[in-house]
Design goal:
GO molecular function, one term: CoA-transferase activity
Keywords: Transferase
Organism: Hafnia paralvei
Number of domains: 1
Order of helices and strands: HEHEHEHEHEEEEEHEE
Largest sheet: 8 strands, mixed
CATH superfamily: Glutaconate Coenzyme A-transferase
Family: Belongs to the 3-oxoacid CoA-transferase subunit A family.
CATH architecture: 3-Layer(aba) Sandwich
Low-confidence stretches: none
Structural class: alpha/beta
CATH topology: Glutaconate Coenzyme A-transferase
CATH class: Alpha Beta
Protein name: Acetyl-CoA--acetoacetyl-CoA transferase subunit alpha
Shape: globular
Length: about 220
Amino acid sequence: MKNKKISLADVIPYFHDGMTIMFGGFMGVGTPPLLIEALLESGVKDLTIIGNDTAFVDTGVGPLISSGRVKKVIASHIGTNPETGRRMIAGEMLVELVPQGTLIERIRCGGAGLGGFLTPTGVGTVVEEGKQKIVQNGVEYLLELPLRADLALVHAHTADCSGNLTYQLTARNFNPIIALAADLVIAQADQMVDVGSILPDQVITPGALIDYVVVSPEVCS
């Protein structure tokens, strides 16, 4: 059995300029703060980040935006972070706004190996620009393509040494889905327990999807 716990310092070599990173959470709740801090400290830049929103200036992925590390954002909401809007308007950063349900489904398709899906959401609006339209049973749909990332950063409540994860309340948002759609998945856990302490039917994200776990305080040897 592989022990997937690593230190925060061991995470740094997995970051590089220009990578695409998915992050979990909603308004910063469920976005792993230690891993975002490690990204900042690593100095990587020109990132494309994918998640529900850009939280606030000083929470969630907000510090990545404020420090100029992000080249492009793919999200459904940016209104709570004025720095995101400022950089977008100034042409300093690209922003692709995607309806929330469409965004999570594009990520799910990326994780499931699907070629995309059809949705009526966005037909007749700016959302349809540059996208293929398909008429099915007399109804117009947009073909939405899957999203994948080089890296997914997940925030769990509890992990065991094999990487099995549980989440707490709304911090679960987006995290289980992005764990399916990235080449490398690193989780931050609030606590770590021995293998077997999490009942099988309580595991939300199985350890097979998780490459590494960072935990603070470190309680698993």
